[in-house]
Specification:
- The chain is mainly beta.
């Protein structure tokens, strides 16, 4: 049964990788002509929320002199930018029939794209940030959001010194890294990538990876639910409850207040350790 389950999981990932490659090629890689790289700045009005829908977005927020959007893209992917009410809306999609490779010449476009939201110096708090991107990296450093929602097909998400209410991050193929942050209830998912959290406080937290490691160090949270089909789960911090399941990978849980925590840990292929002590393949503990 375990062998069949392993084969099934591997088959799912092969199929998933093929689907991602097909659509990535269709949308970015093998159709149409390439435009020249263009860099520009668009001045906007004030806003308190940000919404990004982009095929490619190496996205960040920076402080400057005014509200604006700076970008570098091929000319066939010039962003459309507008402020709708209190929300800055950015859309980045290639024109129909264009892409990143010219089949006639073999020339490739400059894929080092950039999308930066500029806010006046001292502006650090926002209502919501919603980013949907097929490819590219998302970087946030030192901002506050009432709610944070990031959905990426192939991208790394790097968060540092961020304060957020409800937090949802989904990276189909990419790593999620969170440092020195304070989050509300959080839902983090990565189909093929690692999720790494350190020096961070969160509410209740759910983390799910299909193929990747889950690593929490010096992290404070309430109830935690962790699942990995193929990957290690390592948790070190302060928490009320941990439920962790790994089909192919070890689970380790460490805490200075481990006796006060409720644990429900299960592995199929791998072992379980709690505060450095081996616990076999299934372990449960009630809080004292």
């Amino acid at each position: 049964m375990k062998a069949l389950k392993t084969i099934f999981i591997i088959a799912i990932f092969v199929i998933t990788a093929g689907v991602i490659a097909y659509f990535a090629g269709k949308r970015f890689g093998i159709f149409g002509n390439v435009g020249e790289s263009v860099s520009d700045k668009i001045t906007t009005g004030a806003f308190t929320s940000i919404s990004v829908d982009a095929d490619v977005a190496n996205f960040s927020i920076e402080e400057g002199e005014e509200y604006a959007v700076e970008y570098t893209y091929p000319s066939n992917m010039i962003p459309t930018v507008k402020v709708n009410g209190d929300t800055l809306e950015i859309n980045v999609h290639p024109k129909k029939g264009t892409g990143f490779i010219n089949l006639n010449t073999g020339e490739t476009a400059d894929v080092k794209t950039k999308l930066t939201v500029i806010v006046p110096e001292g502006t650090t708090a926002f209502d919501t940030l919603n980013v949907k991107a097929d490819a590219g990296n998302i970087t946030l450093d030192g901002y506050t959001f009432d709610a944070l929602d990031i959905d990426c097909d192939a991208a790394n998400v790097n968060i540092k010194k961020v304060t957020s209410g409800k937090t949802k991050i989904d990276a189909d193929a990419g790593n999620i890294q969170i440092r020195d942050s304070k989050l509300g209830d959080s839902d983090l998912q990565a189909d093929a990538g690692n999720i790494d959290i350190e020096d961070t406080e969160a509410g209740n937290i759910t983390i799910d990876t299909n193929m990747g490691n889950i690593d929490l160090q010096k992290t404070i949270f309430g109830d935690g639910n962790f699942t990995s089909d193929m990957g290690r789960i390592s948790i070190d911090g302060t928490f009320d409850k941990v439920k962790a399941d790994s089909d192919m990978g070890a689970i380790s849980v460490d805490s200075d207040t481990i006796d006060d925590a409720e644990l429900d840990l299960n592995v199929s292929l791998g072992g379980i350790t709690v505060d450095g002590k081996s616990k076999g393949k299934s372990y449960k503990q009630n809080a004292k």
